[in-house]
Design goal:
The complex is a heterodimer of chains A (375) and B (293). By secondary structure, chain A is mainly alpha-helical. In chain A, 71% of the residues lie in helices and 2% in strands. Chain B has one domain: Rossmann fold, CATH 3.40.50. Classes of the chains: A mainly alpha (375), B alpha/beta (293).
Chain lengths: 375, 293
């Protein structure tokens, strides 16, 4: 009888720890590189040195870190739960707009028109702020909105969709339609979000000038730390029983239901979490890039998030991060070298990954390791 | 405290323990005095585990079930046979909440109205179901498949912090042994053979510890040896659980019924015949349905 009791205990502990010792050392090393290494190489090491990290690299990397957060969020909902969202660009943009509203108020009288109100409102000849701008000069309030607005939208949308058992491609199409509808709405001047120009020309955040090298590096470091934090959170989720239920929903949802789990609660919670992660990425993206406009809600932007995830490797947490860096790195090189061929390359990449690398780049690496391990 | 009083106390304690034992025994039939019917818990005092009355389901005018009535007793092992399209799977869909019947009644025990509950609620109340096609979580290991099926708090928040207790690990170990997959515990379920997947799914049902098991063609794709072991397993469950087995394999049905238990024949959505397997097989109407007229 004792053999019966002993054997599975080892199985339990395999998933028990969040990270091993090497894992934690790697995490600490990455955090140090992000918070100390890159800033020093950018600010302290002189321009001519081989070790100097250029401003361009820092701002590009900061941007891609935001994308990587989106890809990680997509992985939780698509890779692990099997729900393909083509509407994550909306949550990203909503987070960005919530932050952008605050940044617009921080411009103060330094805009083109030297007026009290943001330029686009002066241009539209508005005399007072629309109702949804009431508290936009408060950083804390807008930071809350970054989380609450996309979170609430995702919750309400998800509640209806999952309760009605909308699945698969139907769900994807509805999310896509929702994003598109939101884009059309934000294009309109009356909605009070700057129409097709969106928000730009930011000057300060929390009273500190936003375009300085120090600020750029600070935002980069914050984004990197948020990504590492989200990665650890996602890892804890995936390694819990909750995470295994998500995978079970992906593999055989009817079995999950007939085992007594209500999939709606699981899907809704991970869907909302995923949307909030995207929104936070959007809020970090806007001050770094200096602009937010409705094109972030275009269908293509949402599809790209799915491509990063697929290229990197679904249902592996590190894969989507690798995918975001790989695809966006390739994009910035390609659009400089062969500007007209980027979209062809992206399409070819997606087809190639779907056909030959169902587990993405990470799957390729693992396969190679396994082969070497066996030889 | 006099000896009399102590004796009286001991006697009462014993009586109480006996009542408790009778009450909690799965499938216990003793309608004991002061057995309280708890709301939301099935009550088997009357010896009936599943009661279907005049269940009718039609899909676009086609009557998949036509006034089907069926009673399964507590602890009974009931085999259901019937030609293709007789409504066997639709019947299971109705019991488990997947399909809502147009008319009729479906009760679990004497108090639970199944037609008012959702699929997860029906599963939680103690009805387990095995699908015709083995359905396991292909990307999870055998161990994890069983872990998810373990009778436990099913809510999302609870599962986030859930850790297996020693007793739960023991239970998983027991079931792993019972379904002969102990050596495969770490393997990904998708890599198992067809027969092993069937066993794993049966194991997942056992982890749920349901009072009623619905098994749709449990031995399809199994070797003769595996079929025999499955029959042994089901016979060992009989009495503790109620089982409804839908099967085409007459040899397997014969093994399960041991020549004395009731077999139900379904045809065109209602019960055509009911009785011992030999009697049923000799029935003219049944022969006609199976061999064509």
């Amino acid at each position: 009888m004792s053999a019966v009791i002993d054997a599975p205990i080892g199985l339990q502990q395999r998933r028990g720890l969040l990270l091993g010792a090497t894992g934690w050392i790697a995490v600490i090393a990455i955090v140090l590189v992000i918070t100390v290494g890159i800033p020093v190489l950018n600010l302290v090491v002189p321009d001519g040195s081989a070790f100097h990290v250029s401003d361009y690299t820092v701002s590009l990397a900061g941007k891609i870190l935001c994308y990587a957060i989106c890809a990680l969020a997509m992985d939780l909902i698509w890779g692990y739960t099997g729900i393909l969202s083509l509407g994550h660009g909306l949550f990203f943009a909503l987070g960005g707009y919530a932050m952008g509203m605050y940044l617009m108020r921080q411009i103060g009288r330094d805009g083109q028109y030297k007026a009290d109100m943001p330029d686009f409102m002066v241009f539209l000849n508005w005399k007072q702020y629309p109702w949804h701008w009431t508290f936009s000069d408060s950083f804390v309030f807008q930071a809350l909105m970054v989380v609450l607005v996309p979170g609430l939208l995702a919750f309400v949308f998800g509640w209806f969709a999952f309760r009605s058992r909308i699945k698969g491609v139907y769900f994807s199409i509805i999310t896509q339609a929702m994003t598109f509808a939101a884009m059309l709405l934000f294009f309109r001047n009356e909605t009070g979000f700057g129409g097709n120009n969106g928000f730009t020309d930011f000057k300060r955040v929390l009273g500190i000038p936003i375009t300085t090298p120090q600020m750029r590096v600070t935002l980069f470091a914050i984004t990197g730390c948020v990504l590492v934090g989200f990665y650890l959170m996602a890892r804890a989720i995936v390694n819990s029983k909750y995470g295994r239920v998500l995978q079970a929903i992906r593999d055989a949802e009817s079995r999950v239901m007939f085992t007594g789990y209500d999939p709606v609660a699981y899907k809704l919670s991970i869907w909302t979490l995923s949307a909030v992660m995207c929104a936070i990425a959007g809020a970090l993206y806007v001050p770094q890039v200096g602009i937010i406009n409705p094109s972030e809600m275009s269908p293509a932007a949402s599809i790209e998030i799915a491509i990063w995830t697929a290229v990197g490797g679904r249902a592996t947490l590190i894969g989507p991060i690798v995918g975001a860096f790989f695809v966006n790195g390739a994009k910035s090189w390609f659009t400089a070298a062969f500007p007209e061929f980027w979209l062809y390359f992206l399409g070819a990449l997606f087809i190639a990954v779907t056909l030959f690398l169902p587990d993405g780049l990470i799957g390729l690496l693992r396969r190679k390791n396994n082969r070497e391990g066996r030889a | 405290m006099t000896p009399d009083l102590m004796e009286e106390g001991a006697r009462r304690m014993q009586a109480y323990a006996q009542r408790q034992a009778e009450r909690t025994e799965s499938g216990g039939r003793v309608a004991s005095f002061r057995r309280i019917v708890k709301i939301g818990e099935p009550d088997f005092a009357h010896g009936v585990a599943l009661y279907l009355e005049d269940i009718t389901v039609s899909f676009d005018g086609f009557k998949a079930l036509n006034a089907l009535s069926l009673t399964v007793n507590v602890g009974e092992l009931r085999c259901i046979i019937g030609p293709n399209g007789a409504g066997k799977t639709t019947m299971m869909d109705c019991i488990t909440g997947k399909t809502r019947p147009d008319a009729g009644k479906a009760f679990f025990g004497s108090t639970i109205d199944l037609l008012r509950l959702t699929e997860p609620e029906i599963a939680q109340i103690g009805i387990g179901r095995k699908f015709q096609k083995p359905t396991v979580y292909e990307d999870l290991s055998v161990f994890e498949n069983l872990e998810l099926a373990l009778a436990d708090d099913r809510r999302a928040r609870a599962s986030l912090w859930s850790r297996l207790s020693g007793a739960q690990l023991d239970r998983i170990g027991e079931v792993l042994t019972l379904i002969h997959l102990r050596d495969h515990a770490q393997r990904t379920a998708g890599l198992l053979s067809h027969g092993q997947k069937q066993w794993l799914e049966i194991g997942m049902l056992l982890m749920q510890d349901p009072k009623l098991l619905l098994l749709d063609e449990p031995v399809a794709g199994m070797t003769d040896e595996e079929t025999e072991r499955t029959a042994e397993l089901f016979l060992s469950l009989e009495g503790k659980h109620s089982l409804v087995v839908v099967e085409h394999d007459m040899k397997f049905v014969d093994m399960l019924t041991e020549g004395r238990k009731t077999v139900t024949v379904l045809h065109e959505g209602s019960v055509l015949a009911e009785g011992k397997l030999a009697d049923v097989q000799a029935n003219d109407k049944v022969v006609e349905v199976y061999l064509g007229r």
